[in-house]
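Bench notes, afternoon.
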Amino acid sequence: MARSYLHEARKRVGPGRARIRPIVERLAAAHPDAKIALRQQTALELLVAVILSAQTTDVNVNHVTTALFQKYRRPEDYLAVPPEELERDIYRTGFFRQKAKALRGTMRMLIDEYDGEVPRRLEELLRLPGVARKTANVVAAELGNPQGIVVDTHVRRLSQRLGLTRHDDPVKIERDLQRLVPREEWGRFPHLLIWHGRRVCHARRPLCEDCVVTDLCPSSRV
């Protein structure tokens, strides 16, 4: 899209701060089922599932964790088997050696420093092996204490298309979104963008004619 056209489009739809609430409201109405796709029932299962989700699909992770969570129920269980056995159990998620090492390191730290419980604070989550900022934000938000905004590929793409950020770096995108998105929506907002990205605002051919925020989007082709 030409820079001059994009500039004019941004002027047409108005500043992000004025558009963010209607964007959230319309996407929430269009995707009332928007939530995390990873199946999990406990804080520990959530943490493991998110670590395993790196570089693979949620469907793939859910397939693996169906059996995994029956076998490994406590942090100690991940340390009670040889590393090779854990690697085999998570093989299908890819990068299984690195992920197994991260899981074992995380479980050791949970036992040694957090009484076997998953911490809720972002700075504590970031200390765990295999936990980067996106992972920590997902876990904190799903545990009811969002302290940032998750930025994945969908959130990045849609935030840029909606004119909510001009950055490519996830940290800078998150910073822009934190300035615009109301704090009470930090946990829900990424899910709305993710599901809208999967269903409507596709990477190659966005379905602008079916989009509920077309008139609020500077990238709209309608």
